[in-house]
């Protein structure tokens, strides 16, 4: 059976690239409160439950969706937060992450938006998918300094430095991080 015909646990938004790696386009959101903290999820891979990491909210872009629409949907699903399109700035950041997940090597082309939430937000997990319920462990507001001090991996790796820049005020420059191997 060809790699194209192999079933995957990843979901329908993942496609097989010509090089045999599953990939998708994704939208992510850097949600900042007025204290300069970012809302992050902490998760693990079912195949590596001992490994845990922090990452921004977001996920795959569905067929027919723009990156902005996907970012708004993902924030609603993952945190129970409804934002308007005008509530997002950017994109502020792009990268391609290559990582292992569900025993597969994956490539995700990510575009990041920015949203400011004065007063913060208490995350609501009721919109999580079955996969999210299986692999997401926590959500927390963390500052750049807290991210630097805690022992877990953070994706993207430069997130504390990116936060330093975004908390000071986004200057309209899209920062391109290139291809990164996570893990």
From TrEMBL:
GO terms for molecular function: hydrolase activity. It holds the Pfam family NUDIX. Keywords: Hydrolase, Magnesium. It comes from Myceligenerans xiligouense. This is ADP-ribose pyrophosphatase YjhB (NUDIX family). Its cofactor is Mg(2+). Residues 22-167 form the Nudix hydrolase domain. CDD domains: NUDIX_Hydrolase. It comes from the Bacteria.
